[in-house]
Design a protein that fits this description.
Elements lengths: L2 H17 L14 H8 L3 H9 L6 H11 L3 H6 L15 E3 L12 E3 L2 H13 L2 H15 L4
Antiparallel strand pairs: 1-2
Length: about 150
């Protein structure tokens, strides 16, 4: 990876962390919780610092863990591919997207809904706080997991 790619990744990571209720931390250099990042990514304190400083980019497993934690798409975090957040409610096909890189295995990551249920769920979800939205996504992932 080039320095430019590392710097762009760092900017996206910091932005997502600042916008997230689980990763914001006032009074720090970047306004984010580097200790939480370290724990979520399963890396050393130094490596988490390098992610934030634009000196390193995570491998696929830590990248996915960070994206899931922040409720953002891996493709956005890694490459800047829009949109930042998964399309939580598919507006045309009544599908709920539950995070991660959903294009790899879309059938494993969706729930089919009727139109009325789709609209009600969308309205309810959008009224939740960031923290509650993260909890809903976690719960959906857990319910859909084959490891239960």
């Amino acid at each position: 990876m080039t320095d430019t790619q590392k710097e762009a990744f760092s900017k996206r990571l910091i932005r997502a962390m600042r916008e997230s209720s689980v990763a914001r931390k006032s009074g720090t250099k970047h306004g984010v919780d580097a200790t939480a990042l370290k724990g979520v990514a399963g890396v050393s304190r130094e490596m988490a610092r390098r992610y934030l400083e634009g000196q390193a980019i995570p491998n696929p497993d830590p990248m996915k863990a960070i994206a899931d934690w922040l409720g953002i798409r891996v493709a956005w975090l890694r490459d800047g591919e829009e949109p930042m957040k998964p399309d939580l409610i598919g507006h045309t096909n009544g599908v709920v997207e539950v995070g991660g890189d959903y294009r790899a295995n879309p059938q494993e990551n969706v729930i089919a809904l009727k139109n009325k249920e789709h609209e009600e769920l969308n309205r309810a979800y959008l009224q939740l706080s960031d923290e509650d939205q993260q909890y809903v996504l976690w719960l959906l992932r857990r319910l859909l997991s084959t490891d239960r």
